[in-house]
Structure formats: structure tokens, C-alpha cells
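Now for a typical sample entry:
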Amino acid sequence: MNLEHLEYFMTVAQTGSINRAAQALFISQPRLGKIIRDLEQNVGAPLFTRSNHGVTLTPEGIEFQRRAQRVLGELAGMFNRPTADDLQDISLSVSMTKYSHIMESFIQTVLQHKDLPAYAHRLQEGDPIDVMEDVYNHRADVGVLHFGQGQRKNMLALFRDRQLIYHPLAHMTPHILISQRHPLLLAGKPVTLENLAGYGFVRYEGQFEDFTYELFSQGAHFDLSINPKMVYIVTRASLLHLLAKTDFYSIGIQDFTMQQSSYQVLSIPIEDCRGLLEFGYVLPEGIRLNSIAREFLSDLKERLSE
């Protein structure tokens, strides 16, 4: 096993298909399949469950993916972290929680400056604690995260403990995320939390996601974390691929730009839903953001308010 094999594994996990991953990596499918099998043999456990529709991570695969992300992230930090003074004002370094709206703003901002002669952009992804730690330890210049209204007091205390300055961006209403071909839609039935009770629920791992899954709708309380049919994942790509290929559902916010065209996944408002998700960003005390970071935050604020 080597670092290249870890990158191959991550590509398969993100695409949900050995065939698509092989195309993206410009290697043959049989070669990639053998690398994954050899990797599983070295690990001593199956990392993927295979089906006619592609591959999904096993519980061992989810844990292996978490560790591989850290290893590759640290390696990238050793070689890619900008150190020259002349790069500081033309590079964007962001740590984010798992919302594609943030990714889209990052991509848009980077593309606007792709013709610069030099830059060293970086995007890292994790839970709110990961984001805070990245900013506190100067692995990122700005951290974008989200939390529920009931968590605000605790989150502000965590920001103070790490000497981070918090700036709110937007308040978002929770939405149900399902495939465009979900059985409820095909049958013409209302997509409600009550009608989805018998379907599998896809959620991110970690206690800092729990608040997203406790909702009040039409006078009823729904604690989705106790659904007997649960699928735990760690990446946005895994969540979207699962929703696109199954009748599972999850909770998120309004559509991001490429959501329906790329993944055939819809965001459906939850009727009479109490509770909002607050999005904001954190900075170290005394930091002055460069123009590209300010442009990124402006684009994100506009994107979240659409």
C-alpha cells in the first residue's frame, strides 16, 4: 500500500463506482479493481460493498476513509501550504462543513482568478470542530460552518475558547433531500417526514450533526437519529450518490446549483418546520482577510440568500 493507492481509494469512494473512478484517474478498470482488492487484503477487511449500481463504503471503509483523509490532508499540507509572502494575498484557504453551497462558492472564486501567475488555494472539509481547529491552528484562513438555533450558545462559547471571531452569514430552513425518482414522488404522495418514516435515513457521523436531525413539523416532533433504518456516511459525495440511487432520504437545505442536474436529488421544504440552521464563518482574532477571501464570503452569502 502506498499514498497513490490511498488517492485511488478516495476517488472510488467519492464517485461510488470503480469504472467512473478509473476514467477519472486515467487507468484501466481491471487495474484499479486489483488495487482496491489488494488494499482490502492489506487492511484485512472489505472496504466496499459491490452491486450492479456501483460500490458503497462498508463500516470498515468509512473508518478507513476518515483516516485516509487525514493522511492525505497532512501530506498536502507539507508540500502545498503556501509559504512565500507574495502568495498570501492571492490565495484562498478555507475549511468548511459538508455543504456543497460552500464548495460552489470556493470553485467560483478560484475560477475567477485561475489566470494568476501563482497561487496556492486550499479547501478542507470536516465537522464544526474540525473547522474550528483548522482555523485555530492556522491550517485555514477562514472557516465556514453551521449549527442549529439551540446550539448557538454552546457554539459561541467554543469560539471564545479558541479565540475565534464569529460572523453570521445566513439562516436556512431545513429541507428533505430525496431522489427525483423517489417512490413518494412517483406515486404523487406528499413528501413529509411522516410519510418517509418507513424509508432509510442517510446521515453524517458525529455528535455535531445530531441537531440537524431533530425537527418539529406540523406540531409533531421527529428525532431522525433514532430511525431503525440508518446509513452513516462521512462525505457529501457518498450522501448524494446514495440518495440518487436509492429510496433513502436525508436532511439538508435548499438546492445548490448543480444538485438536480448532477445528482438528480431534490430539496423539498419541510412544511411548518420549526428551527433554522445558522451559517457563519470564523476567523482568528486580529486577522485581515485578503481580497480573494472577501470575494469568496460575499459570493457565499449571496448564494445562501437565494
